[in-house]
């Protein structure tokens, strides 16, 4: 039997090293008697002498610690020799408490007592970073959101590039097929987690979901600065800010590191450290998943290569699935959100003849997505209840879906529980909420911001 997990007293940020010759960054942490090092390989290309590079690496170091903190969920996070401002420490505490909300819920932990302590950063900012304009770096995961962002940005940006993070000497086929279709240059980052994490069960570590999007965003920031780019452009839409559930008066959001709250705090930290000439923002922040699906439906060149099933992204290649599983919550949501805008036959081919909406055994998953069941909504990157209900209403009116037994049954169930709490399709297909897109990147309909 592995030892019972117990919270440690402290988690320590021991330090980071930069090797410009090899183009590597090593981040080291310790807790509960264990030391961990995470390695990033950016390659020797780029200007490693640029002062902003170390400023960006420092931010990556601060974000990446979360994967190792979770092993013992310490009461105190000690930033060690790394200096920070009071504002940064406040944001880091928010990052750990809210970014690990799902982890804490599943492990029956209370992280409200977490304290972040460290040396005060007193040196003034000298914003010397001067990037080349309209050269965005786009973290790319091969799903519909990042594909829509790429399609839009390549129209106005002078030199857009993709950023792909993957394990050393390994690539995810689910990303690479869509990468090839874009035809854009790719900046690659190899991320190697400490091997001790693979022994979590044996060593008695706590385990669970971490806000990995934050880590990828921070790594992309380093790559952007190395390449003198002026923006890291994310693909997180409006409903990513919606909580997955609320418990004891607290919101728990599986997608917190994709939320507007995280984006705002992270962008502020970047601005304070690197100056105002680099932007970090989501291009889709004021767009719904329904709008994203509508746009993606028009990008037919990607229909045969995109892949959003999470079973394609296991760290161990032996555990990866080489096709859509057609049964998980993510597969169900992608099928549902695209069904109003794509032919049933086309979606059937995408899912290899296993379209979720054709599988009556998956009714329970759809009912949960639609908020029609008492079960907790899935801890997945899926749209909110209103988006799912609007998709059902729109899809059920399509001529090629009139005989779709499961879909029509879901529509009837939605119609029997109408609610004014959710926006309708018209509202969801228009800009909704606020955004932080700088004017140089904003599409015309978003140049006047909604607040």
Give the helix level as a range of percent. Answer: 25-40%
The global form is globular
Biggest sheet record: 10 strands, mixed
Q: What's the Cα radius of gyration?
A: 22 Å
* Contiguous helical run count: 16
Number of strands: 12
Mean pLDDT: 92
Query: Whole-Å distance between the termini?
Result: 54 Å
CATH fold-level label of the largest domain: Rossmann fold
Which architecture of the largest domain would the CATH scheme give at its second level? 3-Layer(aba) Sandwich
Order of helices and strands: EEEHHEHHEEHEHEHHEEEHEHHHHHHH
Strand order of the largest sheet: 5-4-1-2-3-8-7-6-9-12
Low-confidence stretches: none
- Which percent band covers the strand fraction? 15-25%
The CATH class of the largest domain is identified as Alpha Beta
Q: What structural class is derived from the secondary structure elements? A: alpha/beta
Q: What is the total domain count?
A: 2
Assembly status: single chain
Q: What does this protein structure show overall?
A:
With 451 residues, the chain is an alpha/beta fold. The protein has two domains: 262 residues, Rossmann fold (3-Layer(aba) Sandwich), CATH 3.40.50; 134 residues, no CATH class. The chain is 34% helix and 15% strand. It is built from 16 helices and twelve strands. The strands form two sheets. Strands 5-4-1-2-3-8-7-6-9-12 form a ten-stranded mixed sheet, with helices on both faces. Strands 10-11 form a two-stranded antiparallel ribbon. A hairpin with a 4-residue loop joins strand 1 and strand 2. The longest helix has 15 residues. It is globular and about 65 Å long.
């Amino acid at each position: 039997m592995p030892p019972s997990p117990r919270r440690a007293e402290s988690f320590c940020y021991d330090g980071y090293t930069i090797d410009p010759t090899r183009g590597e960054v090593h981040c080291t942490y310790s807790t509960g008697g264990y030391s961990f090092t995470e390695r990033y390989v950016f390659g020797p290309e780029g200007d490693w002498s640029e002062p902003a590079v170390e400023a960006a690496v420092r931010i990556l170091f601060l974000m990446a610690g979360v994967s190792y903190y979770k092993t013992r969920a310490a009461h105190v996070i000690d930033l060690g020799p790394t200096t920070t401002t009071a504002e940064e420490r406040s944001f880091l505490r928010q990052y750990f408490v809210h970014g690990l909300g799902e982890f804490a819920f599943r492990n029956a932990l209370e992280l409200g007592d977490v304290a972040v302590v460290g040396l005060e950063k007193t040196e003034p900012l000298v914003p010397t970073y001067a990037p080349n304009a309209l050269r965005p770096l786009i973290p790319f995961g091969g799903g519909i959101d990042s594909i829509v962002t790429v399609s839009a940005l390549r129209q106005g940006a002078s030199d857009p590039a993709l950023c792909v993070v993957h394990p050393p000497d390994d690539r995810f086929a689910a990303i690479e097929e869509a990468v090839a279709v874009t035809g854009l240059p790719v900046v690659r980052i190899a991320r190697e987690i400490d091997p001790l994490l693979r022994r979590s069960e044996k060593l008695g570590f706590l385990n669970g979901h971490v806000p990995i999007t934050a880590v990828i965003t921070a790594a992309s920031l380093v790559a952007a600065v190395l390449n003198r780019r002026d923006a890291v452009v994310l693909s997180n839409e409006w409903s990513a800010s919606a909580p997955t559930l609320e418990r004891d008066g607290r919101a728990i959001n599986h997608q917190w590191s994709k939320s507007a709250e995280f984006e705002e705090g992270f962008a502020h930290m970047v601005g304070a450290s690197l100056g105002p000439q680099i932007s970090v923002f989501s291009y889709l922040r004021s767009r719904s998943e329904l709008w994203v699906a509508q746009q993606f439906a028009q990008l037919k060149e990607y229909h045969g290569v995109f892949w959003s099933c999470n079973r394609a992204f296991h760290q161990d290649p032996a555990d990866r699935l080489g096709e859509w599983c057609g049964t998980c919550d993510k597969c169900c949501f992608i099928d549902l959100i695209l069904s109003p805008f794509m032919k049933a036959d086309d979606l059937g081919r995408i899912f290899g003849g296993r379209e979720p909406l054709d599988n009556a055994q998956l009714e329970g998953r759809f009912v949960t997505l639609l908020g029609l069941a008492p079960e907790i909504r899935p801890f997945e990157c899926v749209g909110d209840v209103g988006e799912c209900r609007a998709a059902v209403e729109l899809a059920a009116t399509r001529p090629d879906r009139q005989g779709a037994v499961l879909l029509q049954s879901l529509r009837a169930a939605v119609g029997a529980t109408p609610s004014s709490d959710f926006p309708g399709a018209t509202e969801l297909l228009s800009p909704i909420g606020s955004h932080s897109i700088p004017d140089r990147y904003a599409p015309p309909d978003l140049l006047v911001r909604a607040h």
